Amino acid sequence: MGHLYQRGPIWWIQFYQDGQRQRMTTESTDEGVARRMLKEHEARVTLKEPVVASAAPRDLRPAHRSGGALSPRAARPGAWK
């Protein structure tokens, strides 16, 4: 079973898949849209279908800051903590 939470005006969903916690943004300020997304993801988990997570802004940081190529700093593990 998953749940909804807000970060600022945006709704996020959290659920478990294969014992791992998954958190994703709904990219929506509408709670109803977020509830439907959560139900859809829970159904996919139940049916053992893959759930594709969207990229979080922090995952895009190295490419964004370096113009698309990873800088030596971005290539080091833990450089963007």
Description:
By secondary structure, the chain is an alpha+beta fold. It has one domain (3-71). It has 3 helices and 3 strands, in the order βββααα. The protein has helices at 31-46, 57-65, 72-75; strands spanning 3-7, 10-17, 20-25. A 3-stranded antiparallel β-sheet has the order 1-2-3, covered by helices on one side.
Q: Helical stretch count?
A: 3
Q: What is the beta-strand fraction?
A: 15-25%
Tell me, rounded to a whole number, the average pLDDT: 75
The assigned structural class equals alpha+beta
Please mark out the parts with pLDDT under 50 across 5 or more consecutive residues, or reply none. Answer: 55-66
Sketch the topology as an H/E string, one letter per element: EEEHHH
Number of strands: 3
Measured on Cα atoms, how large is the radius of gyration? Answer: 15 Å
**N-end to C-end Cα span:** 30 Å
Q: Supply the number of structural domains.
A: 1
CA-based shape: globular
